[in-house]
Amino acid sequence: MQQTRTIAIFTDLDGTLLDHDDYRWDAARPAIERIRSLSIPLIAVSSKTLAELDHIQLNYGLFDGLIGENGGVISLGGEVEQPGPSSQTIDSARDAIIAAVNVPLGSFRTVPPEMIATETGLTLDDAIRAGQRHCSDPLIWQPSEQDIEIATDIASQFSLKLVKGGRFHTLCGPSNKGAAMKRMLERLVVSGRLGDGADDTHATKTAITTIALGDSANDIPMLAAADIAVQIPPKRGIRSEPLLTHSDLRIAPYPGPEGWNAALQSILDQIINTNNKSEVLHG
Ligand SMILES: [Mg+2]
What we know:
The chain has 283 residues and is of the alpha/beta class. It has helices at residues 29-37, 50-60, 87-100, 113-120, 124-130, 145-157, 177-190, 220-225, 256-278; strands at 2-11, 42-45, 65-68, 73-76, 79-81, 106-107, 136-140, 161-164, 169-172, 204-214, 228-231, 249-251, 280-281.
């Protein structure tokens, strides 16, 4: 049996491929061009909405597939799949929370984009895209501890979670970046974008190497599910401790796109050297 090896790369955006402050990715261009020349699929995996990711893709054309809302929604070749909870479940849970808590409550799925812009500092166009949510809903409220307890209880009755991010409590499902990455891999293989597609049965066996890059706690399930995990260090402050225990965890030498570029170049050097000795590499 002939063995071939293919590679797929999954990357977080903010603080990983995109600079923490100015959202630039230019420093990663050499690695991105190398990935393209090798026909290796590059998948964005983000807490952003699909509308936000589509907008980035429209401007830069960097990705072969998109995973949004922390793994809740997957887009490949224009086909959208929602492993996260249904929008209806999110709305029912939020409405139950509104009825039960003692403070006024709006959310990204319900308020006008002008209010999202005010709350976040986004431009109106960006706020419109941030509000186009499939399966997670940041709440706009000033809760007491008791309100948070009530909302958390109601979320769990709908099999949802209430997660406190940097600024908002977000109502969301149990889906995560790791599970969505595995689903995306299946779809890449079935669609023929990775491996030998439908022929990947008898004559050849494709070994797929997954590489994931991320910088924070919500990337851990994705890093854990990858063969090679790259942790991007923070731009400021002390050098980060490893986010997880992993048999092949690399900590990038620099933050943001510089670190992204350096880590991937060295991994590709290593894999391609191995391939030259024993295996066939193809994208
Ligand atoms: Mg990040």
